[in-house]
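Quick check before the chapter quiz. The format below is the same one you will see on the exam, so make sure you can read both the input and the output lines.
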Amino acid sequence: MIPKLYDSFDTTVAAAGATGYLGKLTKCTKCLVNESTSGVYTLETETTLNDPMVPNLLSQRIIQIKPNPHDPLQCFEIQDTERIAPGTIKLTAQHIKSFACQLASEGDVGYTDAKYTYNLTPAGVWNKLFADSYIRDATPFQFSSDITDKADCYLGFNEPVLLGDILGGAEGSLMDMFTGEYHFDNYSIKYLKARGKKTNYRLRYGRNLSSAKQKETISQTYSHILPYGTVSRENGSSIRVYSPPYEIPNHERKTKKVFILDCTSAVEDIVLSGQTPDYTQVQSLMTDYARHYAHSNGLGKRNVSIDVTARADLDAMLKLGLCDSVKVVLDEFGTSTTAKITAVTYDALAERWEKMTVGASATSLAKIILDRRKYNL
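Here is the expected output.
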């Protein structure tokens, strides 16, 4: 697809994203869309200096392009322009979702030594921020989520902070409270329990995988989980309860590394009674939750990522997309596992994948937050 150029964002609620059509980049030679589970969503474009649109290629202009085989056309705002020899202009652009991330919540009047929290779902946080004028700017963005759990949320309600930090990337953000994954579709922000689909597609070196680069990291591999949770009492107060650290069976660490896990959702229906409550049931439930969490998320395993760049392999994977799960079998490395597609690069001109990364994403928002909160012994 040939990229389309627009003058600016259309910020009316019903807009598709851009207004003021200027024309097509008919001399475009490169147009790569990069997206990953860390929230990165960028466009790299190059065109020749004799392209009729060159005089209009200014910062904050909008490029519209198809970002992958599955989603509709998306809008990207030009951030940088660079003229390089011989006769080429290079553009870098951010997805329209960055416009939402720059909105600021002013926070509320309150004592600096107290954090006022609200027990809300992700959609409840979004609605309260705008309905109660924590964020005063009108926005064309629509937020939806299939996550119905609630958590004690404070970010955005206590002090000035950008909406991008509320969505993810800061302690107390939605990503911190609920995990989950984002799907950005122009002015639609979808916050999902899980994105992508499980597939039966198998990547096997020597068969349908002609080249592979393996990266292994131990930085997000844990030996133990420290479960804790907040439980209600009969008198209306709450108490924080801890369980003994749970050792992950068959973990692959030689040294102890503890993952701190909030298990409140597993014990929120329990009400403790008496002056000296019996915590046995609560601790047992939290340990069971930790055991399930460790197994589901592979916390005790080394993270392995595979870069897929061979043309034939990528063409065969055209129906796959970000967050889809595939089976990876690399006999040369002794690796066999199910892994997600965590980063993709799409050639929008040729309308095909340019690169895929299958496996752990070392820079996801959730893991950045975990690095700040991990507890080493």
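If your answer matched, good. Helices lie at 97-101, 122-131, 163-167, 174-178, 264-267, 280-297, 311-316, 365-373.
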